[in-house]
């Protein structure tokens, strides 16, 4: 296994751990539903789509087609770099670079165009958000960390009122479960179910929660993946600056 080969180069410094699907706290934190997924410490560096196995035909991922030697060599080089950064005490740099390793090389620079129907049956589009600081949260009903993040976003919406627009876009969840969750939370957010074109417009969504922050001009201010312990703190720092 290539991950073991990389770990073996750091004798006494790196330990390889294999976790079963459904029993990984890290996978749950980042909302990763499928395997293979690769972490270095608590930094997510590769998800199924990277290998061509995430809702796509094999051959479309960052390291696909996986059977080719060149794809495997690229993965080993990327993984080695992440290990080196973390061993050097540069986890923050590794976390930033993680976006590029997990398919977010397509990270969007501006709020994309989209048109949806919200859960109340009203039209919801990017045009309606012009001039607002915007938060877009991709979530799923099966994702425990998503619920606490949605509750926190509800508090922010109440705090900042019309100065902030918060969209909660559900993915990979049944409509019945989405509506049940929306009803139980009773938060003043803009709720909708994200279709495939919308998810793709945001650079594709490989984990939940994924949080996008946009300034009043629609420019991307920050993208945050998964639910690390400082997610809310880091997001609110950025929002404080945007809302000044």
Structural account:
With 244 residues, the protein is α/β, with parallel strands linked by helices. The chain folds into two domains: 105 residues, no CATH class; 128 residues, Glutaredoxin (3-Layer(aba) Sandwich). The protein has eight helices and nine strands. The strands form three sheets. Strands 7-6-5-8-9 form a five-stranded mixed sheet. A two-stranded antiparallel sheet has the order 1-2. Strand 3 and strand 4 form a beta hairpin. The longest helix has 19 residues. About 5% of the residues have low confidence.
What are the salient characteristics of this protein?
globular; 36% helix; alpha/beta; 9 strands; five-stranded mixed β-sheet; Glutaredoxin; two-stranded antiparallel ribbon; 244 residues; 2 domains
Total count of helical runs of at least 4 residues? 8
For the sheet with most strands, the description reads: 5 strands, mixed
Enumerate the strands of the largest sheet in spatial order, edge to edge or round the barrel. Answer: 7-6-5-8-9
**Secondary-structure element order, N to C:** HHEEHHEEEHEHEHEEH
Mean pLDDT: 86
> pLDDT under 50 segments (min length 5)?
54-59, 101-106
Distance between the termini: 50 Å
Radius of gyration: 19 Å
CATH architectural group of the largest domain = 3-Layer(aba) Sandwich
Quick rundown:
The protein is of the alpha/beta class and 244 residues long.
């Amino acid at each position: 296994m290539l991950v073991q080969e990389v770990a073996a180069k750091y004798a006494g410094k790196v330990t390889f751990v294999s976790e079963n699907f459904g029993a990984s706290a890290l996978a749950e934190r980042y909302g990763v539903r499928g395997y293979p997924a690769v972490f270095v410490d608590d930094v997510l560096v590769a998800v199924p789509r990277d290998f061509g196995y995430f809702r796509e035909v094999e051959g479309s991922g960052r390291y696909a087609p996986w059977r080719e030697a060149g794809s495997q060599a690229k993965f080993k080089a990327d993984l080695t770099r992440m290990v080196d950064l973390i061993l050097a005490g540069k986890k923050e740099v590794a976390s930033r670079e993680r976006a590029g390793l997990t398919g977010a090389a397509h990270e969007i620079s501006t709020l994309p165009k989209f048109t949806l129907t919200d859960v109340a049956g009203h039209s919801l589009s990017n045009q309606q958000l012009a001039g607002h600081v915007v938060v877009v949260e991709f979530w799923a009903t099966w994702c425990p960390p998503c619920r606490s993040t949605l509750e926190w976003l509800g508090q922010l919406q109440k705090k900042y009122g019309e100065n902030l627009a918060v969209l909660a876009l559900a993915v990979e969840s049944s409509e019945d479960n989405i509506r049940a969750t929306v009803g139980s939370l009773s938060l003043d957010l803009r709720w909708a179910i994200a279709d495939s074109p919308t998810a793709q417009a945001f650079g594709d969504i490989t984990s939940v929660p994924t949080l996008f922050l946009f300034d009043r001009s629609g420019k991307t201010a920050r993208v945050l993946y998964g639910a690390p312990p400082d997610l809310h703190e880091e997001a609110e720092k950025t929002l404080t600056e945007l809302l000044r």
